[in-house]
């Protein structure tokens, strides 16, 4: 804190241009530290560079400060939070960027990864699908067969090394951070596709686990004989023993599309 106070004091006498340049130099230092995986030092550098943020007295100065310094620094801080597994902070930082630049591809994707690791699978899916569409993907895969075919197709496109420019209009309604060459774009689409497929598989596993859990609970409550409802998976919620709710964390119920999970979550809450 004392160090940051000293930095803020030293910046007071600088002009708007000098503050911006100092902030950019400090941000570049943070980039170098990040590439060396020195995440704590990189976080300090990015936080320091934001001390130089001066929105100026004109609209042009405000836009320049936000686009050149504030948005990149906050995005890079979010990347550091992902790397250090501070997912809630990463999500909050991405939201800050999206308030300023609603079509920021990096913010959308990093928020998706944060939600993925937090178990907020529905929110992660929405952001991943949005990122996929922003990069020109026609439709994310839904089955294992589609996933394999799509990944192979993207891999074949990469081998051709064909390049094409995408729109990088700086207007807020246009996507920003979209890749300008086909190779980077296809690599990104493969990554998005990977996470969408992982979420789909995880939700399927959750649903099966929950259905088995309810079936086992019913068998226990009926002395092992079971009922037709248990065998078909259509277990009445009120017949589930109380200890079943402690067998799995509540987050498991919320993260699945399984009807058993949704009903159980409502009852527990």
Write the layout of secondary structure elements.
Elements: H1 2-11, H2 16-35, H3 39-51, H4 59-83, H5 87-100, H6 105-118, H7 121-134, H8 144-160, H9 182-221, H10 228-232, H11 250-254, H12 259-268
Helix pairs in contact: 2-3, 2-4, 3-4, 4-5, 4-6, 5-6, 6-7, 7-9, 8-9
Provide structural commentary.
There is one protein chain. The protein has 269 residues and is an all-alpha fold. It has helices at residues 2-11, 16-35, 39-51, 59-83, 87-100, 105-118, 121-134, 144-160, 182-221, 228-232, 250-254, 259-268. Among the domains are: 1-84, no CATH class; 205-268, no CATH class. Helix 2 runs antiparallel to helix 3 (39-51) and helix 6 (105-118) runs antiparallel to helix 7. The radius of gyration is 24 Å and the shape is elongated. It starts with a helix and ends with a helix. 32% of the residues are buried.
What's the tally of helices? 12
Order of helices and strands: HHHHHHHHHHHH
Largest sheet: none
Large-scale geometry? elongated
Low-confidence stretches: 157-173, 229-257
Mean pLDDT, all residues: 76
Calculate the terminal CA-CA distance, rounded to whole Å.
Answer: 41 Å
Overall helicity:
55-70%
Radius of gyration: 24 Å
Beta content comes to: under 5%
In short:
This protein is an all-alpha fold and 269 residues long. The chain is built from 12 helices and no strands.
